[in-house]
Design brief:
With about 160 residues, this protein is mainly alpha-helical. The chain contains six helices and two strands. It has a single domain, classed as Winged helix-like DNA-binding domain superfamily/Winged helix DNA-binding domain (Arc Repressor Mutant, subunit A, Orthogonal Bundle), CATH 1.10.10. Strands 1-2 form a two-stranded antiparallel sheet. Helix 4 packs across helix 5.
């Protein structure tokens, strides 16, 4: 592991436990995706075990439940909800899989949904950035106007 990058400087020894890559849009779109806090943490747990696109992550609901401090049954209900929303699919793992697990979780539904939503999110972020830019320009213009006053008002900075 490259240990001289900024992320390693920020997180220090906590990085020795490993890390994962999650697109920011997973978090930015959480509400629009209708993901509860439990469902988001389950997605993070599944993602933690998803190393290659073709290899489905497999992690037992009981393992996630212990990590999250909730019941196995709650995890199972939330996984079912994720499946019902089309964000996750439970799939049988092939017999030649290098595991004793029989079920894997396919996250391509979540990926596809985010990819479909991304343009609208990106557009609204650009609009917001444009509005912020206009506000900054307007504020700078107001400050210039105030600074140029010579009429004896409280904002007369020359007298």
């Amino acid at each position: 592991m490259e240990k001289d990058t900024d992320v390693f400087q920020r997180w220090g020894e906590a990085m020795t436990g490993g890390y994962q890559v999650i697109p920011n849009l997973v978090f930015l779109l959480q509400n629009k995706l209708h993901l509860s806090s439990h469902q988001l943490v389950i997605v993070l747990n599944l993602s933690m075990h998803w190393w290659k696109k073709s290899d489905l992550p497999f992690v037992r609901p009981s393992t996630m439940a212990k990590r999250m401090g909730i019941s196995r049954r709650t995890v199972e209900r939330q996984l079912k909800a994720l499946c019902d929303m089309g964000l996750v699919q439970k799939k049988w793992l092939p017999e030649n899989a290098k595991t004793t697990a029989t079920i894997g979780y396919d996250l391509t539904g979540l990926v596809a949904r985010i990819e479909r939503m991304r343009p609208a999110e990106a557009k609204s972020r650009k609009v917001a950035a444009g509005i912020d830019g206009l506000r900054a320009e307007r504020a700078a213009g107001t400050l210039r106007d105030l600074a140029s006053r010579t009429d004896g008002s409280p904002f007369d900075l020359r007298g």
